[in-house]
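Homework help board

Subject: predicted structure for assignment chain

Our instructor gave us this sequence and asked us to write out the predicted structure in token form, then describe one feature. I got the tokens but I'm not sure how to describe them. Can anyone check?
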Amino acid sequence: MGRLAWSQLRFRAARTIALLAGVLLAATAFTVLTAASRTSQLRTVGTVAAHFSPAYDILVRPKGSRTALEATTGTVQPNFLSGIYGGISLEQYHRIQQIPGVQVAAPIAMVGYTLIRAGIPTLLPAADNARPGRQLYRYATTWVSAGGTIRVSQPPSFVYLTPDRLGLNSAGQSYEDLASGARETVCPGPSGQPASPFGVAAQSEGWCWSHINGSAGAFTLSPQPHQAFAIVTWSFPMLIAAVDPAAEAKLDGLNLAVTSGRYLAESDGQRQAAGRQPTFPVLAASASGIGEYAITQVQRLPAPAAPVQLSAATMASETAVPGQAVLTVRTTAEQAYRQVLAIASEHQPVDAYLTAGPVSYQRSGDGTLTPVQVRNPVSVWQLGEATSALLAPPMDETESQYRLLGGHQEIGLQSSGGPPEMQLVGVFDPARVRAFDPLSRVPLGPFQPTTAAPANAATRNALGGDLLPNLNLGGYVSQPAQLITTLSALPVLEASGAFNGNTHASDPISVIRVRVAGVSGPNPVSLERIREVAQQIAVGTGLDVDIVAGSSPEPTTINLPPGRYGQPRLELSEGWVKKGVAVAILTAVDKKSVVLFTLVLVVCVLFVANSATAAVRGRRRELGVLACLGWTRPRLFAVVLGELAAIGLAAGVLGAAAALPLSTVLGLHASPGRAALAVPVAVAVAVVSGAVPAWLASRADPLSSVRPPVLAVRRAHQPRGITALALVNTMRAPGRSLIGVLSLAVGVAALTLLTAVTVAYRGVVVGSLLGDAVAVQVRGVDYVAVAATVALGVLAVADVVFLNIRERAAELATIRSFGWRESSLARLVLTEGAVIGTVGSLAGAALGLAGAAEFAGQLPSGLFAAAGASAAAGVLVTAAAALLPARLLSRLPAAHLLAEE
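My token output:
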């Protein structure tokens, strides 16, 4: 029996080589594919591990502060502090600190915005200062932000110059000494309650100057004595936030970002000297983070004949008087911020502060978010007996707003004698706060301004860069915290008995960021430690807890509506934090590896089974004769299966030898031990694939030698045309055609599935910067492996066409003798291949879509186009593969075949 098997392998060289080539290709492809999948997994795990740990592992917020949008999308907003002014008590904070496994618990308590007014003086031209007689100047300021697209005009202010001496009365008002000896009040200052915080009475200023004695001592801002100047007043919203200095230093190294002065100490808190107001320490940011500038145009008006009283009514009447431009000045937010820091260092009182709520969104079907505009009443700025700073808010507050504002005013004198004053102890550079991995970055909180990047060319051209915050407290992009104080200073700032409307005196903390000890990567032990700590926090405090370890920024598109002052519709991109990205990536990689392993085994079995079945069908007469000579069925089964096992052994050895250099060329990690697995795999595939053909061989009987190789015709049918004849021919051997269809379907399904993996990484499964980085790494290698799988399917179809030609050789010779041209016969064969290719490609695309739906949880619209492209490619490649069998038609020995018939 062994000699018979050897003789079959030796003397049927063509079929042996075909079988050997098929198993060799399958074994090599399997080995390379397993190496590719393993390499992809190793690289993915390495990438995830390298970028796994963010600044902290757990974000704790007050109960109910997680928005419905965050819960739906599994994300955390980049400005997660927006609208959270307390909600966590100090007792809850200390309880979290004591939970086993908590390495750092860093709280942030958002207090609110205090307005500090800073004036930037601008000297009038020397020639105008020297002009004789009385002079009146008007200067109007336009506030410019959002890359120049927002331009808000402020009611004009005025400067009055007189040749007479100025004096000050007991009310601080300027009067002019006339030659007649009389006194005329020229700068009476504000009087009464302004009707609107944005009108002339609140926003216009009047400055009086004398050629003799300057401002009569009323102002000390003049760069040169007795020279008149205009003042551009910036109303700067300064956000105050409180931290635990020691915990913040451990979390992000805020102490290392101090550029002057000193860092906050744990003992820093409210202090009070005898007879003075209480003070609290602040660490100020070195930069404002505000993207805004002011354009001020100074105009000379007709010279007045008599003294001018710069009251609100007079300034309103002079607004429309024509004037002559004499000066245009540009001042920036950073220039004003330097003045703010100087003011803050001089015990600036905080007698009121404001809060800004969160942004609400409408979510479209494609995931784009549109912020909902709100309207804040002017009463927000009219806080009873509030200071003039609150009565003159930035003009930016008249622009479109997305946050509801609230105010807290100091109510009467405290027992200490007045509102608390800030004491500047140091300055820190926000850019020096520790930077964390960009692929796993989570927002730290108050230090860096939240920016929104352009998402399309039109927005990029309009802004010229990112959208930065401006002075609009209700604007979309919020201001960063410029003033950092300590938790121990909160009682003097948020005491309900000192500031009206404050309901969080007992629970002032807004969020707590927790880092867990012993976390080393996305391994089960670390993940369990984080989960255990998060669960203890949630159960022990009842607060909202988000695990952000293994998260990554997810680019989210924001559709910002047009503004009131020129800002067009903007399409922006923000990095929302998508939670659990690392775990999702590892799970997705495991799924993909299992799917690819399964598909390669299926295609190998189909290919070898097709070849083995063809070999058995080609030996029908021989097997029938052996059965007549008395060979038993087990003996026939063993001889056929032994031939296939020998071919599998040889193919496995050759595949193992070829896998190592091929893997090296492709940059894969295939060890000799892994390559040696090709031998048992090839033998197993050959034996499993040949089991059914060998069983069919054992059932051979003498009559099989005279039976036709195709099914008998049950009913006469005359095909019309080559296409119809090709369809009939594919159905004459349905089992063989089905194998070709399945082989190609597996390859096309693999291609569609891999496309789904790529799409899913970018949008559905991960949809983050880390997901994009991992997707780029795994995509190329996997497509090489899947290309080999598709090639096996195409070769299987070509083999089916080839076998059809061999078994119908006499029939084709007869057709040729009837006058058919070679081109017509070639078209017939190509059409048969195209039919099998079309059915297999469509079936594979459908299977791929079904697998993608299971893998990704949904079907992105672009995946249907990718599936269609995969099916079309399968049809074209299959038709091209049928060209080689078609060329064999010209080599058929027609005369010999007709003689045999």
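Reply (TA_rk): Your tokens look well-formed. For the description, you could write something like this. The first helix runs from residue 2 to 11. That's the kind of observation they're looking for.
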